[in-house]
Amino acid sequence: MTKSGFWKMPSTLAALGLALALVLTACGGDDNGGGGGGSGFLGATLNLSGNVYTIDDDAFTPPRFTGNRTVVSRPPGGTGEITEGQLSFTFGRPATEYLESIGDFLEVDWGGSVTPANAMGTRLRLRTATGTTENGSLWRVYGTRTATFSRGEEVDFIFVDRDVTMRGERITGSWNNNDYSGTYEYRAFNITLREGWNALRWVWEERVTAPNTFSETMTLSHANPGSPVRWELDDWSRARNSGEPEPLGRTLPGRNGIRR
């Protein structure tokens, strides 16, 4: 299994320049709702719930969303809605036609292995709609930022058609992009996904080690039930660019200049 990078930053964090997470420094954890158990296994049926917040680049703390919308899943098959700002969503087993190899739907190359190699699955993406018009993206994210440290976190909901073990090695290196430079680390992992729905947790951290110099790390693990992630609605009518942002992949941003 080969891809053009090691593993890549969640499209939420990359496409929006961490705007979905890093403006969220004032609030604590999520009020309620799905996000993963100790092992990350969520069962044969995925049930998600929780209060929804609105991503607002101008707000230090994201405001609560209080409206009503239908929730549309990618792949299709899930059913749900946001009612007065409260999410309720359910998804059973995705149709076989929407399953693909794990390396394809996670868009990763771990420098390691997936066992068994023929395992299939899919990654859930949630959109919102009013009537038949899609008008937002829904993410499970959180972040924090100081003058010298940034941290973004996203939970992915993954379906696999059999038990799977994923292993990745630690990889380090350096990058230089115009006026910026730094080091990066992809931390080693050994993760077991059980047949059904699982929660994976991506964490990206950046430290300023000198002027215009950064140290960046990416970690993949089972979702942490104590994590402060919460549901964030990217309302396309409020976005900096109207319409759904283009996903830029999971490569560490300093290496590809995504955020520079």
Tell me briefly what this model is.
This protein is mainly beta. It has helices at residues 11-15, 19-22, 102-106, 253-256, and strands at 41-43, 46-54, 69-74, 79-83, 86-91, 100-101, 113-115, 120-123, 125-130, 133-145, 149-160, 164-168, 171-177, 180-186, 189-193, 196-210, 213-222, 230-235. Strand 4 (79-83) and strand 5 (86-91) form a beta hairpin.
Overall structural domain count: 1
Widest beta sheet: strand line-up: 2-5-4-3-9-10-18
Q: Let me know the largest β-sheet.
A: 7 strands, mixed, barrel
How many helices? The count is 4
Helix content: under 10%
What structural class is derived from the secondary structure elements?
mainly beta
Separation, N- and C-terminal Cα atoms = 30 Å
Unreliable stretches covering 5 or more consecutive residues: 1-38, 240-260
* Radius of gyration (Å): 18 Å
Strand percentage? over 45%
Tell me the number of strands.
Answer: 18
Specify the overall morphology: globular
Oligomer: single chain
Overall mean confidence score, pLDDT: 78
SSE succession: HHEEEEEEHEEEEEEEEEEEEH
Attribute tags:
mainly beta, disordered C terminus, seven-stranded mixed beta barrel, 18 strands, 260 residues, three-stranded antiparallel beta sheet, 4 helices, disordered N terminus
